[in-house]
Amino acid sequence: MSMFDWSKECKTMKIPIIAGNWKMYKTHKEAFQLASALKQKLADVDRTKVVLCPPFTALASVKEAIEGSHILLGAQNMHWEEKGAYTGEISPQMLLTIGCKYVILGHSERRSYFFETNETVNLKVKSALEFGLIPIVCVGERLEEREANKTEQVIEDHVRGAFKDLAADLVKRCVIAYEPVWAIGTGKTATPSQANEVHLFIRELLSSMFDKDCGQDVNILYGGSVKPENSKELLEMSDIDGALVGGASLDAESFEKIVRSAI
Ligand code: PGA
């Protein structure tokens, strides 16, 4: 497998990205219905990148539903190998051929329930880039870490781990999602300034690790209880480039409102 040639991919202007992480919800039929409803509701939206990340079993039906629209397809995880005897796993090649453009990697639920580590996230990030998939790399601290003033240390560990041994040019193609673990599915959102502060920290870290522009070039999304009631104030912050939405992405109306708040 030769490396995907990113230099031939035009670097699009930085426009907001709103990604829906459907987690382990929706059968393939329900997913088709939700994606079809979103295609209709968001037909006029072309200045925000909308990415739907359904479960693996619904990727094909969502792809079919969004055909002919601006909506893009993403997966929630993948193995780093191209193929092999890895029962239960899905390869980057499989995601690519089904129509995925994005893949969420290192989500906190995968780190805590399925023992993903910075090392495996790093292998996955490298592999995704090699195949031409854009990784959405999740980083974020737990409540006890925030309370012990360890937020920056944890984020630095996650960022350094995920992007270890990567060239600046490739890192710039990635998306990062800052998702404080205490805000995921809890209804507790980081305040816009709390979130922005961490986004800024990530930008400075990337610039110091790679090159000066890296921090500015990487899209950094906020995730954790984003809903129509709070999305606008979060998305207005200087260093928040979009959102990774869980619960509120499962309902067409609320997801539409969030997408429109980014316009
Ligand atoms: P939530 O999930 O919006 O339901 O908090 C976000 C995520 O886990 O990506």
Characteristic key phrases:
263 residues, alpha/beta, TIM Barrel, 8-stranded parallel β-barrel, 12 helices, globular, binds 2-phosphoglycolic acid
Describe the structure.
By secondary structure, the protein is an alpha/beta fold. It has a single domain, classed as Aldolase class I (TIM Barrel). 41% of the residues lie in helices and 14% in strands. The protein is built from 12 helices and 8 strands. It has an 8-stranded parallel barrel, surrounded by 5 helices. Helix 11 links the parallel strand 7 and strand 8. The longest helix has 18 residues. The structure holds 2-phosphoglycolic acid (PGA). 2-phosphoglycolic acid binds next to strand 8.
Walk me through the topology:
Layout (H helix, E strand, L loop, with lengths): L16 E5 L6 H14 L7 E5 L5 H8 L5 E4 L16 H7 L3 E4 L2 H6 L4 H14 L2 E6 L3 H5 L3 H12 L5 H4 L3 E4 L13 H18 L4 H4 L1 E5 L7 H5 L6 E4 L6 H10 L2
Parallel strand pairs: 1-2, 1-8, 2-3, 3-4, 4-5, 5-6, 6-7, 7-8
Helix pairs in contact: 1-2, 1-12, 5-7, 7-9
This protein binds 2-phosphoglycolic acid.
The site of 2-phosphoglycolic acid (PGA) has 13 residues, from β8.
